[in-house]
Amino acid sequence: MDATLFFSLFFILCIIYISISFFVSKSVKSVEDYFLAGRNLGFFQISISLIATQLGGGFILGISDQAYKFGYYGLFYVFGICLGFMLLGFGIASKLRAFNVDTIAQLFEVYYDSKFLRKMASLTSILSLTGIFAAQIIGSKCLLVSLNLYNPILFIGLWFLIIVYAMLGGFKAIVQSDIIQLSLIILVFLSLFVLDLIFNFSQTLSVFKFGWTNPIFLRDIKLQEIVGIAIIPALYSLIEQDLAQVFFASKNGKLAKVSALFASVFLLFFALVPLYFGIKSRMLGFDIGITSNALITLFDRQYDSLVVVLVTYGVLAAIISTANGVLCAISSNIVKDFDLPKLSSSNQLILSKVVMFLVGIIGIILAFNFSDIIQVLIDSYSVPISSILISLLALYFYADPTQKNKIRFSKTAAYLSFFGGLITFLTLLFLKKNMLFSAEIDALLVSLTCYILGFLVDCFNRTKS
Description:
This protein has 465 residues and is mainly α. It has helices at 3-25, 31-36, 43-54, 57-70, 76-99, 106-112, 115-146, 152-199, 201-213, 223-236, 241-248, 253-270, 272-283, 294-302, 305-337, 345-367, 373-387, 389-398, 411-431, 439-464. 52% of the residues are buried.
């Protein structure tokens, strides 16, 4: 496939997205409209946005590579995402909507009475989401390298246009483009899977059997690593700003809950598609090398060039849909959680767009220094899980958003939990050692212990006074 032709077609697609974004931007009148779509999303829009947030490069390309290496164990990453969505669907999503805040970090000021912790929580979220944004760019680069389509100048130009269309219309435009992109993803990959099922039924059964029974998938597997791949995404989904912003933007808590459960079921079933093609690539004996991908290698060698083009656009659509939601979340953290100059409504909107553009450019620069998609995602999850998860879980279970006079939770507990977990994680990461489990889980246990100690200290001080 000719790289210039490919990028020319994709640039045309980006121009269409920019046109949609420009049209949507005319209805964006405030910063709340820009970041939260006026808090008016319905079931369909919420579900699409939640699925798009997760269905990126790490999902399709990452799962196919994990399936190539570990067979059915490649689903553990998906199990983690779906478990997180189920926890959200069973109550946490509606609680997030009821808090009526703009960012997750804002809860630290509202309930723990600490502007400093709000900024620190926001900073960990920004660093984490920047890693996830970079992972999407890495995924697109791996995709193009696999097909010998990679051209640095055209690649940067492509992502520049993607950032521009996200910047123009904000979250409203992102939701509209997600609908188009997700439709393309489902149409391409489900069609190919169903066609394989119909015309190569015996081979399809052989692929699933191969993934289940072949001992080569157990040769290099480490249970600790696999469990970590499942648990970390589940925990992170409870605190990540790009998911939370969807719930903040929903019409009500009930819609938020139902949409989270629907997204969980959809992602679990859709994951069978990249799993199948990853295992098939291994069964056919394809060597994917260091920079290639199992799914793309399979289609490039086994299917017509038109199919390869459709798959490429499908994967890129998945990557872009996730990247834009993350980009919006990072910008929201920066604009909402830090003491930026007091400006008029129109100037705040301009500032928000400038911030989103700059964040996107920084993400492109960072992406050129990493290559492992899943590992970048897991590393990005680790810092906020180690530092802010415990304090937020306490709010999810015990805070009452309906009370006008908010009950203040233990500030001491939040401080000790944040710094105890963060310092433990960074220390274990630096020493490349674990105490009991992985560095993330060990740090999380320390964070929990510190929260309990801080809570007891505050209780003792109140009793004493």
